[in-house]
Structures are given as C-alpha cells and as structure tokens.
Design brief:
Radius of gyration: 23 Å
Order of helices and strands: HEEEEE
Largest sheet: 5 strands, antiparallel
Structural class: alpha+beta
Oligomer: single chain
Shape: elongated
C-alpha cells in the first residue's frame, strides 16, 4: 500500500551535518600525521605505488632534494643528469649521516 504523504527536506540541516562530519573525519585522520619540513640538501626516499612482490623494496633512494616548490612538490636529483619533480606525499625522509 502506498501512502500519499509529502516529506519536506531541510537541506540546510543536511548540509550542516555533512560539513560537520567532514571536519570531524579530517581532524581524526590528521591527528596521527607527523609534520616534516623538507629543506634543500635533505635526503628522501620515494615510496613506490606499484604492486610489489613480498620481499621487494617499497622505496627507492635515497635522493637529494635540489629545489623546493610552493605547490607541495620538490625537485630531486635521481642521477648526475636526471632531475625529477615529485609530490611530497610520495616522499619519506631519509636520515642519512
């Protein structure tokens, strides 16, 4: 049996509830992050996003940072002639002495 009832949606409450959930989830995810400021001359590893075998290396490097850009990317020197611009989300700081 179908009841001919009307339902008025309160879009303002739905939008506020979703916005509150987004802010809560962002705060929860960012709570465990460790801030790291990269500097020119630091060494970094590049995390590989490929599907690897069990004992395969998950990171490449270490590589030296040459230039830091303002849009969350850095330029690293892969070899004597090869420079690569890469996002900092793919980097992992290497503590090389």
């Amino acid at each position: 049996m179908i009841i001919p009832a009307t339902y008025l949606t309160n879009w303002h409450n739905i939008t506020n509830h979703r916005r509150k959930n987004v802010l809560y989830n962002n705060a929860r995810e960012n709570k465990s992050r460790i801030d790291y400021d990269y500097k020119v001359g630091d060494f970094v590893f590049i995390l590989t996003k490929d599907i690897n075998r069990k004992l395969a290396e998950t990171k490449q490097g270490p590589f030296r940072i040459v230039i830091i850009h303002t849009n969350a990317t850095v330029t690293i020197r892969r070899s004597a002639r090869v420079m690569e611009r890469i996002n900092i989300r793919r980097l992992f700081p290497a503590h090389v002495s």
